[in-house]
User: Fold Subtilisin-like protease fibronectin type-III domain-containing protein from Eragrostis curvula.
Amino acid sequence: MASRISISLHYVTLFLLLAQISHSSAPIPKTKNHTELSTYIVHADHLAKPSHFAKVEHWYSSMIATYSPREAASSSRILYVYDTVMHGFAVRLTGDEARRMSNATGVTGVYEDRQFRPLTTRTPGFLGLEPGFGAWQDTDYGDGVIIGIMDTGIWPESASFNDSGLGPVRASWKGMCVDAEDFNATSCNNKLIGAKAFGAASPRDTDGHGTHVASTAAGSEVRNAGLGVFARGTARGMAPKAKIAMYKTQETPPITDVVAAMDAAVKDGVDILSMSYGDDPPPKPFHMDPLAIAAFGAVKKGVFVVLAGGNDGPTASTVTNLAPWMTTVGAGTVDRLFPANLHLGDGTVVTGQSLYCTKENHTAIPLVSSTCNEGDMTPGKILGKIVVCINQVDSPGEIQNAGGSGLVLVDKLHGWSLDGSAAEPFNFPALILSYTAGEKLGAYMASVPNPVASFSFGCETVIGKSRAPMVAAFSSRGPNLLVPELLKPDVIAPGLNILAATKDSYKFNSGTSMATPHVAGVAALIKKKHPSWTPAMIRSAMMTTAGTIDNMGKKILDDGITDGRGGTVATPLAAGAGHVRPELALDPGLVYDAGAGDYVDFLCAINYTVEQLRRFAPDMATSCTQALPGGPAGLNYPSFVVVFDGRGDVRTLTRTVTKVSTEAETYNVTVVAPRHVKVTVTPATLDFKQQYEKKSYSVEFRSDAGGSGWEFGHIIWENMKRQVRSPVAFMWKN
Assistant:
C-alpha cells in the first residue's frame, strides 16, 4: 500500500484516540445486532459479592453462567479480571446478554469495548535540565522512581535503555519481563524492569512509538545521537536514572486491554503512569468512560497519571482527558529548527524545514500545483517540476517515480510560523512550509504564468534563534466540554519535532503523545525528591511554577491559525498554567492538594447519582453529604474558571494551600484581572510557620455588565524567593 504524508493527520497518527461510543444515559450502547458477540467490561462492586462465593472469580463465573449460558465453562470465557484500578471482568457477550447482565445485583456498569487508533537531544536543556547541577543533581536524575509506560511496546536493545551505573529495582516491585518468541526476558535489566503485553503476543515494539515515548521519559544517556547530520548530541530522557516498565497494547487497542494494562501496572507498583491515549471529541461522561474510572482507581492508589490532551487543535473545545484526577498535557514547540530555503523566481526566499540534506546547487525549475493524490501525479504533469501540495500528499515516492524534481508541502492547517512547522526526513529534495510562507509562495505563483524556484538545504540544526515555546497548532484546546469550570489542559511540554529512540535508531515525532512523557519524567524527578507527595501535589507543583514567558522574554504565543490570524498570545485554554519548568517545580513553596474524597465531592457537584459515584469509589460513595462551595469550580485545583451565567454577578471560590517549604514564610497576593471584573482575595497575606501547614483563602469575583466571551487573568502568592501562580479564566454566558 502506498505511503501517505498528511499534515492534517500527521499529528493525529502519533496520538492514541478512543473511538466514539454512545452518549445515551444507559451504560450499554446499542449494537447493530443484538445476537452478535462483542467484548464488554462488566464493572462490579466487589463489596457486594455474595458471601457464599469464596472468590470474586467464582461470582463472576456465576454471572456469566446465568446471563450468558454457553457450552464452554464460564471461567474459561473471562478474558481479564480487574482488581486494582477497578473491579470486574471482560467477557464476550451478545448485546441482549450485556443488557441483562447490567441489571444483575452488584453490577455497576457494562461498557462495550471500543478501539483505540494511533494518534531527545535538546528538550532536557530547553527545560533547564543540565548535568552536574540543578534539578538533575538534586534528584540524582530520578534514580529508582518507576515510570509505567502504556504504549506500543519497547525495543530493549536500544542504547537508550542501557543500565550502566544503575542499581537494582526496589524490593517491593512486583513486575516482571515476559518471554515471547521475539522478546527474551533476559533483555531486561536495571533500566527496563518490566515488559508485559496485553492483546499482543510480545512486548517488542514493531511500531516505534512506544520506544520513542519511553526514551523521552527516562532514556539513559546516549552520546552522539541524532538523525543523520541533524540534531547531533547527547540524548537523555527527562529522568535518565528512572526505571521503565512497559505495558504494551496493540497499535489500535481495545479499552479492555487498556484497563488490564493499567490494572497490572498499578498492581506491579509503578509510581508514574504515562499514557498517550485520549477520546475523540466530544468526550464521554466520566461515569461511562472506563479509562477515567481506572485512572481514578490508580490515583487513589497514589499513582501519578499523566495523559495526552489531544491533537485536534487549534479548534476550541477539543481537549480530551478532562477529569481532575488526570494530569492533561498540551504540546509546545522548542527552540530548534532545521531550515531549508526555497528561492522563488522573483528573488523572494521563503524558509521552511526539512531533514533532507544535500550541498548540491539547484537551478531554477518549474513549479506546479497538484491535488497530490496518486492519480494527479503523472509524468505528463509533474515531470521535471517541483510539486506544490497543500496539507497532504499521497506517497512522496510517486512524485519521484513520475519524474518530479522535488516537493513543497504547505501546512495551511497547522503552524502559523516556521517555528511551529514539522520536519520530515525526505529522501529527495523537499521541504515543509508554514502557513505564512505558503501564502507568499501562493502569491508568487499566482502572479506569473510560469513560476520557477530552486532549493537550498543548509543541512544544519539551528538552536536558540527562534521564539519558543509556542503552543503547537495541533495541540487540542479548551474549554472543557464536560465541566467548563475545570481548566484543561493543565500544562504544556515539548511536543514538536522531538528526537528520541525508535527501534535501533533515533527519529523525530510530533504530538501531545511526545509532550506527555516529558511531564511523566518531570513527575519522576519530583517524586524522587518528595516521595510522600500525592499525585495532586505533584501536578500542583508543575502548574503553579509553569512559565508563561518564552526564551525571548515575551509572552508565550499560540501558533494556531484561527480566522486567518496567528501568532497571538496563548491563553490558558491553549497553554493551561503554562510551560513546565522542572527546576522550579521541585521547590514550589505552596501546593494545592486533593484526594479521592475531594474528587467525589467534585462529582457530586456535577450532579452525579450515588449509583454513578459507586463506579469510582464503592467504598466511599454512599451519598453526597455536603455541597462543594462554588460548585465544581470549588475543587481545590491550582487553576480557576469563573463562570458568570446570569444567576448573579458575584462568584466566591475558596482554595487551601499546603506549605511544603521547610522554613517559615509569608506570602502576599497579587491579582491581575480583566477590567470587567473586580477580584478580592481574603486574606491578602498568608503567614506560615511549619512545613505542611495548611491555610485557606477565599476569592470574590465581581463582574460588571461589560463582560462577554472569555477573558483571563491570574492570582499569584509570592515572596522574595518563590512565586505560586494560578491562571484564572472568566466566561460570560450571555
Remarks:
- The mean pLDDT is 89.
